[in-house]
Amino acid sequence: ISPANYAIPVIGKILPFLGALPIADTLHGIKELNRAMEHRLKNGNPIVIYPEAHVWEYYTGIRPFPVTSFKFAAKFGAPVFAMTVTYKKSRVFKRPVTEVFLDGPFYPEGETEREKAAFLHRRVYEAMKNRSKNSNYSFIVYKEKGNKSTVKF
């Protein structure tokens, strides 16, 4: 997670107890993050990666995300699950009803780690695109304007 998330009141204090690891931005930090991820996988602990990197509240599409999101699963042969959030119009409230779908497990296939990561990326992206079709309501509409994304309520 972004180190800035640790500053969020209440949640920021809970994140370390939930096993959250900060994203590294130095060579030393990247090595430590890799070591921590490897340790968790070898001990059978799950790792949750948010591949889209940024939350777009109530966004109903699936944005592109990097193949590198799957490098640990490819390296260690770990299964991957896709979690997709969809939204439906509420009959009672202004805000939409949230549904969460979990698909998988998807296991790495391929000869090299790169091929395995690419395979997982494709499978997860396809599953998420498929599930995103369950959204039937756009509470917030994101529109691209020039090089900037704008939000319309």
Describe this structure in words.
- It is a single chain.
- This protein is an alpha+beta fold and 153 residues long.
- The protein has two domains: 1-48, no CATH class; 53-153, no CATH class.
- Helices cover 30% and strands 19% of the residues.
- The protein has four helices and four strands.
- It has helices at 11-14, 27-42, 71-76, 113-132; strands at 80-88, 97-106, 141-145, 148-152.
- The longest helix has 20 residues, at 113-132.
- The chain is globular and about 45 Å long.
Would you spell out the secondary-structure blueprint of this structure?
Blueprint: H1 11-14, H2 27-42, H3 71-76, E1 80-88, E2 97-106, H4 113-132, E3 141-145, E4 148-152
Antiparallel strand pairs: 1-2, 3-4
Percentage of residues assigned to helices: 25-40%
N-to-C span: 28 Å
How would the global form be characterised?
Answer: globular
**Count of separate structural domains:** 2
Overall mean confidence score, pLDDT: 86
Strand percentage lies at: 15-25%
Radius of gyration: 17 Å
Biggest sheet architecture: 2 strands, antiparallel
Summary, kept brief:
The chain is an alpha+beta fold and 153 residues long. Helix content is 30%, strand content 19%.
